[in-house]
């Protein structure tokens, strides 16, 4: 396991979020893809925030209220991407 790779993934996640906030959807998506690729290559999990705020189907970085909807219900949080894909997580 490489700490360097984990740092790189964190950094790509930060860049993706910053790009998404500026409305740079495609740039954000390419950072998400790069982060995923590094994680796969090094068999690392994505950091929780990046995992939750990126779409599994279209690799968009999700900004609730802009390109994603967030609902909490029955102890779960559901994040729905503009592409229609949604993910559910237990809520604490
Ligand atoms: Zn999507």
Description of the structure:
The protein has one domain. Helices cover 45% and strands 18% of the residues. It is built from 3 helices and 3 strands. The protein has a 3-stranded antiparallel beta sheet, with no helix packed on it. α1 packs antiparallel against α2. The relative contact order is 0.16. The site of zinc ion (ZN) has 7 residues, from loops. One of its GO terms (molecular function) is zinc ion binding. It catalyses: Endonucleolytic cleavage of RNA, removing 5'-extranucleotides from tRNA precursor. This is Ribonuclease P protein component 4.
What is the structure about, briefly put?
It holds the Pfam family Rpr2. This protein is an alpha+beta fold.
């Amino acid at each position: 396991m490489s700490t360097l790779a984990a740092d790189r993934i964190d950094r790509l996640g930060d860049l993706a979020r910053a790009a998404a906030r500026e409305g740079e959807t495609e740039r954000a998506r390419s950072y998400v893809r790069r982060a995923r690729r590094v994680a796969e290559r090094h068999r690392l999990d994505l950091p929780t925030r990046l995992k939750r705020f990126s779409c599994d189907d279209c690799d968009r970085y999700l900004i609730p209220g802009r390109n994603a909807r967030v609902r909490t219900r029955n102890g779960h949080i559901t994040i729905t991407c503009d592409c229609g894909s949604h993910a559910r997580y237990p809520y604490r």
